[in-house]
Specification:
- With 268 residues, this protein is α/β, with parallel strands linked by helices.
- It has one domain (3-266): Rossmann fold.
- It contains 10 helices and 7 strands.
- The protein has helices at 3-13, 25-36, 48-62, 76-85, 111-139, 160-180, 199-203, 213-223, 234-244, 248-262, and strands at 16-20, 40-45, 66-70, 91-96, 142-147, 185-190, 229-230.
- The chain has a 7-stranded parallel beta sheet with strand order 3-2-1-4-5-6-7, with helices on both faces.
- Helix 6 links the parallel strand 5 (142-147) and strand 6 (185-190).
- The radius of gyration is 18 Å and the shape is globular.
- Bound molecules: NADP nicotinamide-adenine-dinucleotide phosphate (NAP).
- Residues 21-27, 45-47, 50, 72-74, 97-101, 120, 147, 149, 192, 194-195, 197-199, 202, 213 line the site of NADP nicotinamide-adenine-dinucleotide phosphate.
Length: 268
C-alpha cells in the first residue's frame, strides 16, 4: 500500500484492527500489511509465543502498538474476553482469519473435532461480526473481513464439513455486505483457493500449487470497500473460473476427487 492509500485506509478503518489467526499464514500476513499501513493491532490466536514474536517484530518495524490475546476461539468465554479486552480501544476493523479444516471421510470424523471447527470457523466469526459490526455501524465507519474458501461454493466430499463451514461464511458475508453498506461498514468475503500456510499440515492435506499468504493479504485488503467477494491471486481465480463453468453436481464430484487426492491419510 502506498502512503496516500495507507492514510485513507487508516482514516476509514483505524485506529485499531482486531486480527484473529494472527500467529500464522494469512492472518499473520494481514497483520504485517495493516501494521505497514499504520494500524495498531490486537493479535488473536492460541499460541502466545508466536503472537508475541509477531507483535515484537511489527511494533519494532512499523512503530505501531500491539496487544496479544492468546485464546482458544472454540471456547465461548474467549469471545467475551476479546470483547472485554478491546472495550477501550478505537477498533475500526475486524479480520476474522482464524480457522482450520478437517479432511477425509465424513463417517470417520471425530465429533469433538468437528464441533470445535464449527465453533472456530462459524460461531466465533458470527459473534465477533455481531459485536464489532454494531460498534462500527454506530459510528458510521469500519470494516469486516471474513474468510470463506473456494471449497465453500459447492459440496466438497472428503472435506464435507469444512466446506460447509465456509459456505456459512460466504453467505453470511454476502448478506452483511449489503445490509451494513448503508451504515458505513464495508464487509468482504475473501475466498482463496489453496494457500501455502499452516492450514495443510493441520488438515492432514498435501498442498500442490498454492498461493502465498502475502498475495492473499495484499489482494484482500485492496478489495475491502470495493467488492462483496474477492478471489485472491491468479491461481485462486483460475481454479474458481474452471469450476464455475461446470454444472454444480459435476463440481461436487470434481472437488471430491481433488480432495481425495490431497488427503494424506487416504493415500498412505
Ligand atoms: N490455506 C488454505 O488453503 C486456505 C484456503 C481457503 C481459505 N482458508 C482460510 O483462511 C483462513 C486462514 O488460514 P491459513 O491458511 O492462514 O491457515 P493457518 O496458517 O493454519 O492459520 C490459521 C490461524 O488460525 C488460528 N487458529 C486455529 N484454530 C484456532 C483456535 N481454536 N483458536 C484461535 N485461533 C485458532 C491459528 O493459530 P493457533 O494455532 O496459534 O491457534 C492460526 O493463526 C482460515 O479461515 C482458512 O479456513 C485457507
Amino acid at each position: 500500500m502506498n502512503q496516500p492509500k495507507a492514510e485513507l485506509f487508516k482514516t476509514k478503518y483505524g485506529k485499531w484492527a482486531v486480527i484473529t489467526g494472527a500467529s500464522s499464514g494469512i492472518g499473520r500476513a494481514l497483520a504485517n500489511e495493516l501494521a505497514a499501513a499504520g494500524l495498531n493491532l490486537v493479535l488473536v490466536a492460541r499460541r502466545q509465543a508466536e503472537l508475541e514474536q509477531v507483535a515484537k517484530y511489527l511494533s519494532a518495524r512499523y512503530g505501531v502498538e500491539t496487544r496479544v490475546l492468546a485464546v482458544d476461539l472454540a471456547n465461548a468465554p474467549s469471545l467475551t474476553q476479546i470483547e472485554d479486552e478491546t472495550k477501550y480501544l478505537d477498533v475500526g476493523l475486524l479480520v476474522a482469519a482464524a480457522g482450520f479444516g478437517t479432511a477425509g471421510n465424513f463417517l470417520d470424523a471425530k465429533l469433538e473435532d468437528e464441533l470445535a471447527m464449527m465453533d472456530v470457523n462459524c460461531r466465533a466469526v458470527m459473534q465477533l461480526s455481531l459485536h464489532f459490526g454494531k460498534q462500527f455501524a454506530e459510528r458510521g465507519r469500519g470494516g469486516l473481513i471474513l474468510f470463506s474458501s473456494l471449497v465453500g461454493y459447492q459440496g466438497t466430499p472428503r472435506a464435507a464439513h469444512y466446506a460447509a463451514t465456509k459456505a456459512y461464511i460466504q453467505t453470511l458475508a454476502e448478506a452483511l455486505h449489503v445490509e451494513l453498506a448503508p451504515r458505513g461498514v464495508d464487509v468482504l468475503s475473501s475466498a482463496p483457493g489453496p494457500v501455502n500456510s499452516g492450514f495443510g499440515a493441520r488438515a492432514d492435506m498435501k498442498m500442490g500449487a498454492a498461493e502465498k499468504p502475502e498475495t492473499v493479504a495484499r489482494v484482500t485488503l485492496a478489495a475491502l470497500g470495493k467488492k462483496m467477494t474477492v478471489t485472491p491471486g491468479a491461481l485462486s481465480k483460475f481454479l474458481t473460473w474452471s469450476l464455475m463453468t461446470a454444472p454444480r453436481g459435476l463440481r461436487v464430484r470434481i472437488m471430491g476427487k481433488i480432495m481425495g487426492g490431497m488427503t494424506k491419510h487416504l493415500n498412505s
